């Protein structure tokens, strides 16, 4: 994936839509490409994470391992396609935490990945940009929590 392809992936991401060209270029400079086969995990629930991912091609399911005594197994809590983002959001706070779900590719998938700490640096250096990002992240996480609650209601 070339630099321009990474830039297109960043521009098409739900989290970065509407940002100015300078911000898109700065974020793109932080990114790297990763590719996964169908059935391959991007990360597992409980792994320590430091990255955020943008899907540029493919389909990724977020799965949560659930143990309710008599009922246990994996439950899909999110189905994400092109332009959607996922990962370890706590790194934007300067903290390393474990992933609350697993991310498994349903078909060959390509992602643009970056370290949350690097985006945090951009946010701290430009408070207007940082505040804009926080607003977008709050809305994204609200939607993700609604998806998880919806999945849990079906157990």
Q: What attributes does this structure have?
A:
155 residues; four-stranded antiparallel β-sheet; Jelly Rolls; 4 helices
Q: How is this structure best described in words?
A:
By secondary structure, this protein is α+β, with helices and mostly antiparallel strands. The chain has a single domain (3-153), classed as Jelly Rolls. The protein has four helices and ten strands, in the order H-H-E-E-E-E-E-E-E-E-E-E-H-H. It has helices spanning 3-11, 21-28, 116-125, 127-153, and strands at residues 32-36, 41-43, 48-49, 51-57, 60-67, 72-80, 85-87, 97-98, 102-105, 109-115. Helix 3 packs across helix 4 (127-153). The chain is globular. The model has no long low-confidence stretch (mean pLDDT 90).
What's the CATH architecture name? Answer: Sandwich
Largest sheet: 4 strands, antiparallel
Total strand count, please? 10
Q: What name does CATH use for the topology? A: Jelly Rolls
Average pLDDT taken over every residue = 90
**Total helical segments:** 4
**Tertiary shape:** globular
Per DSSP, what share of the residues sits in E-state strands of 2 or more residues?
Answer: 25-35%
CATH class category name: Mainly Beta
Quaternary status of these chains? single chain
Work out the count of structural domains: 1
Helical/strand content category: alpha+beta
CATH H-level homologous superfamily name:
Jelly Rolls
Low-confidence stretches: none
Spell the H/E element sequence: HHEEEEEEEEEEHH
> What is the gyration radius calculated from CA atoms?
16 Å
> Whole-Å distance between the termini?
40 Å
Q: Estimate percent helicity.
A: 25-40%
Q: What's the arrangement of strands in the largest beta sheet?
A: 1-10-4-7
């Amino acid at each position: 994936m070339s630099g321009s392809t990474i830039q297109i992936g960043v521009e098409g991401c739900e989290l970065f839509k509407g940002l100015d060209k300078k911000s898109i270029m700065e974020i793109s400079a932080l990114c790297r490409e990763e590719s996964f086969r169908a059935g391959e995990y991007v990360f597992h629930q409980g792994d320590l994470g430091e990255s955020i991912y943008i899907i540029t091609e493919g389909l990724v399911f977020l799965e949560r391992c659930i143990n309710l005594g008599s009922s246990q197994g994996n439950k899909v809590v999110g189905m994400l396609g092109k332009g959607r983002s996922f990962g370890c959001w706590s790194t934007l706070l300067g903290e390393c935490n474990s992933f609350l779900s697993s991310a498994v590719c349903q078909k060959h998938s390509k992602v643009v990945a970056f370290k949350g700490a690097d985006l945090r640096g951009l946010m701290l250096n430009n408070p207007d940009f940082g505040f804009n990002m926080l607003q977008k992240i709050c809305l994204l996480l609200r939607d993700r929590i609604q998806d998880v609650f919806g999945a849990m209601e079906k157990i």
